[in-house]
Amino acid sequence: MNEKADKNIGNVKPHAIVDEMRKSFLDYAMSVIVARALPDVRDGLKPVQRRILATTNDLGLTAKSKHRKSAKITGDVVGNYHPHGDMNVYPAMVRLAQDFSLRYPLIDGQGNFGSIDGDMPAAMRYTEARMTSLAELMLKDIDKETVPYVDNYDNTRKEPQVLPAALPQLLLNGTLGIAVGMASNMAPHNMNEVVDATIAQIDNPEIELEGLMEHIKGPDFPTAAEIYGVEGIRQAYSTGRGRVDIRGKAEIIEDKSGKSTIIITEVPYQVNKAELVLKIADLVRAKKIDGISDIRDESDREGLRVVIELKKTAYPKKVLNGLYSMTQLQTAFHINMVALVDGIEPRTLSLKEIIGYFIEHRVVVVTKRTEYDLSKAKERAHILEGLLKALDNIDEVVEIIRKSKTRDDAHQNLIKRFKFSSEQTDSILDMRLATLVGLEKSRLEDELKEKIKLITYLENILANKAELMKVIKDELLEIKEKYGDERRTKIFNQGLDGFIAEDLIPSEDVLISITKTNYIKRVSPKEYRSQGRGGKGVIGMSTKEEDTVQFTRIANTHDVVLFFTDKGRIFKTKVYEIPPASRQAKGSAIVNVIQLAPQEQVTAVITLNKKSFAKQGAYLIMGTVNGTIKKTEIGLYSNVRSTGIKAINLREGDKLKWVSPSSGDDMITEVTKKGQAITFKERDVRPMGRSASGVRGIRLRENDEVVSMNVINSGDDYKTADLLVILEKGFGKRTLVSKFPIQKRGGVGIKAANVTSRTGVVVEARIVTDIEGEIVITSLNGQVIKIKMKSIKRLGRVTQGVTVMKLNKDDKIASVAVVKATLKKIEEKIKLEEEKKK
After folding, report:
1. Which CATH number goes with the domain that contains 707?
2. Tens digits of per-residue pLDDT, 384-422?
């Protein structure tokens, strides 16, 4: 063993490998957390993103400059700032350019930067890039000593530790970062909402979460889609962690033949559209989803559109629910608001804390910028004062300069004579002869005044915190005015887990309209405010050809809607769950709301409040086309599955057509197409169970069927009400209900109209108590007429009636809709309320 080796032996110290591994792994973990994976709460950027923007700034790639090769940008990032390789930098830059990844992209890419289908971007040698206008705002004032600089990885240059960030990037675009033992997953938000919330917190630093959420409703994803449930959002904003359920936007469209199609126009955030389509196709092949006949991706530059054609035998709502449950058309976004505080400490932050740290950062940046501008303004004012003093004594100044042997001599002589500072003297010596003209002196005097005014303004900002905060607010409002846009993601208070935040739904009266071909909508009465005199009434609905409004109901948003179908089934939903629409809109196919079977039609609609189900002595009276009557307590229908339940056990060939609530002591009237009518007491029908078949209400003669069933109060209404009868060939009349004697149920009834070949059969018979209303009559050929109820003559029982609609030779009346005057009065009521407010 040599002498040199012997000396080294004494320097070797034993060290436990467990301790060494622990120390090394902690060093590695902190390096990943701080230098690679997590964003800084101040500018919302991870190091690689910050370095990309710093490089584009170094290269002068502003939003108005020419694009440069992505390879050049990536190479400069790697060579100057980021030592981890271009395989990390280029994908990060690509994501900053994708409008389906970032709500507000920071890179303006030219070329193939990937797609929502998961297509890879072109190689960096083929694409070009530059900053967007918003990225410039992230770097605004960086040259004014507003942020600290640190050595880069090889100590050859300086890089910004954080960007000035004139906008709260962390909330606007969110981020995804996976570190060692922790991760960050933040959702993007709407600029208008974030700016408003930030200003609200500036105005009131003690603002609570509820106050912030008045402005920030929830995430706003670049791919739009729909969020269900606000509890997850509230939890995320208060604790930093929460789950947000997202659904793509899908609508069921029904064509004239009755065939349905599902149209997907929005997908959840971070969902690959191509993989979604393939997944649906795999489920169809595996027969896990039945009823789909074809899938087409019709997406183009105009937007996303996936068309799923259904078989005629399919249950559209059931198919759509299957897509939600088995594909990424419905996903969950798990918010985890982890960011670096002070650039070194990873913390889980609440919404208020994130906004608070951004405000603190802006205070520092604006303060330093103001100090920098003040320093520069004072320096320039000092120079201007020297130049003006020199101009006032220009002859002597020139003489001193001419007599001086060197510039240094002139410098010293001027300082000695006029007490100029060294900086002022240098400026005088550099002064051009053109400065001697009178206009130039005037310009210098004006500039000095402006500088003095600017100095006063800047000093006021530094001395008054309120002024400083006003500057921050004004800059945020300017950004909002220029770049703010409408929210894309719609938020529903109802959660997908069945929880309904009903208290968050405003309680208000709305109008529900359902057409004969099962199109439904919910319209706020305020929609009718724009209707003036001479309008078409309150229905105002665009319908398909040969379609008419069948049901109109005024209901509260918290009420329950019961739908009864011709197959004897019942469905239940809340009023606020019915898709809202404008007054003129056609509405949505009802299969978007309830799971109807193929060829199944809604024939009756009832709206009830919560108390109705618990009310004693409240019943539902059901009538079928074959004359069956059934009476059941309302409470038996309080629990209805989403797939519906049986409301009545129908005999073969029969259809459930009418359902009306009753008090238990009302009168029931049925009318057949051949003009027979029967009126009997409700007490003659005993209450039955939910799945019972019912009893005979009227005995039908051969080839006859029931065309109407009405329930009427046995008191004053019965004495004054009319039975409106409309016949097939355009005849109609009103007859007092009291003209019809009360009989026992099960009889053949008496004549309600004289039905002949000239009049045609009875199409509709309604008990009306409001003669101020209107009726809308539609013919088979699409002819429509709206007439006043009171214009229809009141006649006896055994009469044909008068002509209410003139028809062409081969035309017949197809349907009749009654519009109550109470609906028409909604507009007048709203107008009166508006006038009172004024």
Report:
1. 2.120.10.90
2. 998 888 888 888 888 888 888 899 988 898 888 888 899
